[in-house]
Amino acid sequence: MKLARDTWLIFQRQAQLLLRNPVWLFVGVFQPVMYLLLFAPLLKPALNAPTQAAAYKIFVPGLLVLLAIFGGLFQGFGLIAELRAGVIERSRVTPVSRLALLLGRSLRDVVSLIAQAVIITGLAVLFDLRVFIGYLLLAYLMLALIALMTSAVSYGVALKVKSEDALAPLMNTVAQPVLLLSGILLPLTFAPGWLQGVAKWNPFSWAVDGTRALFGGDLSNDKVWQGLGIITVLAAAGVFWAARQFARSVR
Amino acid sequence: MIETRGLRKSFRSRAGRETKTVDAVRGVDLDVAEGEIFGFLGPNGAGKTTTLRMLATLIEPDGGQASIAGADLRKDPAGVRRRIGYVPQGGSTWDESTAREELVLQARLYGITKADAHRRAARALDAFQLSEYADRKCKTYSGGQRRRVEIALGIIHEPKIVFLDEPTTGLDPQSRAHMWDEIRRLRTEGMTVFITTHYLDEADALCDRIAIMDHGEVVAEGTPAELKREISGEVVLVGLDAASTPRAAELLDTEAYVSKLETVDDGGLRLYVDEGAVAIPQVLRRLDHAGLDLRSIELHRPSLDDVFLTKTGRSLRES
Ligand SMILES: Nc1ncnc2c1ncn2[C@@H]1O[C@H](COP(=O)(O)OP(=O)(O)OP(=O)(O)O)[C@@H](O)[C@H]1O
Ligand SMILES: [Mg+2]
For residue B317, what pLDDT band results from cuts at 50, 70 and 90? Predict the structure, then answer.
């Protein structure tokens, strides 16, 4: 009860601050739309897709997972600014739940990601993408879990390193192989065997495959449940670890 | 109200390959009574903030115990949090929020209902003369206004004790005087106030009792008057030109009321006496008699800086 109330308080505050500065929405939608308009047309021939809509079925889920990963990983910067302003310290002297300090923030990130995802899917639908709504919701669940995990990890790391100078290269170093080895922009079907072998160890690769299967209307594909399962476990672990960082002393 | 025994904290910091241990706080014993303004006076790096952060449950002590308003710091940190307010040295407001939003949120984090939080915020804004700017973003506030918001944030839940870490640093003299009034008002409302400062005049004027801290240790504790009385006597500064200084020293050194005499480098004497008001006329007469030309005479009552000087061998102003 207290956890839910405290989480809601933190979420409200963070969401309010985000809405006050709607530039994020513009930036957050503008870039993916550029990908949709300028990159996706290259895909139809490259993927040997029969139609533009078929190409979108492969490309859009990848793009959304990409947004979830990157959107989450870079949330830590905001937290470092809050640390510096003394806002975190101020919260930590109150009896507020430490888990709520994390969850409220991550929840805000999840909600803003889903808002972004809805806008982008909507645009893709204008370009003839067709997805069954139930499957789409499951795909959004996958995205939400990814964003929850990456933002929690980013917050946890931010509390540990306490400086933007350390956070930026760290997050980039993590994000790059994750991105390349997940088949986000292009499916790994064309990859040589060894690359596919390595990608198996990348949980995001499973998540991307699962999300693509959902967009493709293939609910019976094992990848869906495997992807959801892997990401759920990782999200729980990420939240657990990051919440401990909030409970521990930070300057 | 606050009782600490042997509170200790050291930090390990890495400089290149070497790890250095800084003993920030080494065994602090304090007793703060209910309803007093207790001051923590010390130079930069003395360990004031570290002690406060331990008492506010933000960092865990390496050793020692403390009880705060009846709650044990180690066994019941949640209990301590409910009873205290803490205003950090470096600020605690968010640029993009308004004072009212910050106050309401802070109250709600303490478990206060929404309606009550709004009432308290309005009352606090009024009490700290912030109503006019209440709905402006914090980044538009002056340093003094912002500091007042932060103090209001620290006491929004009406704690028994409030810790204020350097509440007046960076304020102009007028804002400082205002802040002192605000802090005295908290005492009138029954709060115990624990402040840190490195201003001597502030410790002297504002605090009922002070502890002087240096290198992680409390070197003196008491009321400002007690501490000053401890360094017995007063100092008479006699201004003379360099030529007549040796002769004057010779004359005055034999006087019974002078307990110690020092020569000032570029001429003049420093006389340690029991009571300056009694000594001055006698000094005047003696020098006049000898036909020595007196340039100035000045009575110097001991300040907290002299207390610091006697206890640590350094002046607080220099460190
Ligand atoms: N997180 C930390 N890591 C390493 N060293 C620290 C840390 N916090 C404080 N110190 C060191 O502990 C010592 C005491 O610091 P503290 O902040 O308590 O001093 P202070 O009396 O509050 O000084 P000031 O008047 O400058 O605020 C300093 O030498 C400081 O460098
Ligand atoms: Mg300090």
Answer: low
Please tell me if the CB atom of residue B22 comes closer than 6 angstroms to any atom of ligand 1: yes
Closest by CA position to A141, among listed B250, B146, A133: A133
B84 CB neighbours in chain A (<8 A) are 93
Q: How many domains does chain A have?
A: 1
B169 lines ligand 1 (CB under 6 A): no
What distance in Å separates residue A108's CA from the closest CA in chain B? 16
C-beta of residue A107 within 8 angstroms of C-beta of residue A7:
yes
> What's the mean pLDDT in B23-44?
91
Containing structural domain, residue A97: 2-247
CB B152 within 8 A of CB B185: no
DSSP letter at B267 equals: S
B46 CB less than 6 Å from ligand 1?
A: yes
Q: Are B8 and B27 in contact (CB under 8 A)?
A: yes
pLDDT in tens, B70-128: 899 988 988 999 999 999 998 899 999 999 999 999 999 999 999 999 999 999 999 88
Average pLDDT (B203-212) is: 90
Residues that place a CB less than 5 A from ion ligand 2: B 48-49, 89
ipTM of the shown complex:
0.85
Instruction: Tell me the two tokens of residue B118.
Output: 């709004």
Which is nearest to B307 in space by CA: B226, B190, B208, B209?
B226
Residues whose CB falls within 8 Å of the CB of residue A53, separated by 6 or more in sequence, listed in order: A127, A128, A129, A130
All domains in chain B, ordered by first residue: 2-228 (3.40.50.300), 234-301 (3.30.70.2250)
Q: In which residue ranges of chain A is pLDDT below 50? A: 250-251
Chain B residue with CA closest to A98: the answer is: B109
How far apart (Å, rounded) are the C-alpha atoms in residues B311 and B305?
Answer: 10
* Chain segment B141-156, per-residue pLDDT in tens: 988 889 999 999 999 9
Q: Is B163 exposed, middle or buried (0-12, 13-18, 19+ CB in 10 A)?
A: buried
pLDDT of residue B94: 94
pTM of the model: 0.84
Cβ-Cβ contacts under 8 Å, B88 against chain A? 86, 89-90
Give the number of whichever ligand sits closest to the CA of residue B48. Answer: 1
Residues of B with Cβ-Cβ distance to A16 under 8 angstroms: 101
| Whole-number pLDDT of residue A117 | 92
Q: From ligand 1's centre to the CA of B202, what distance in Å? A: 21
Edge-to-edge strands of the sheet including B234-239?
B258-263, B269-273, B234-239, B296-300
Residue located via tokens 């209307």: A217
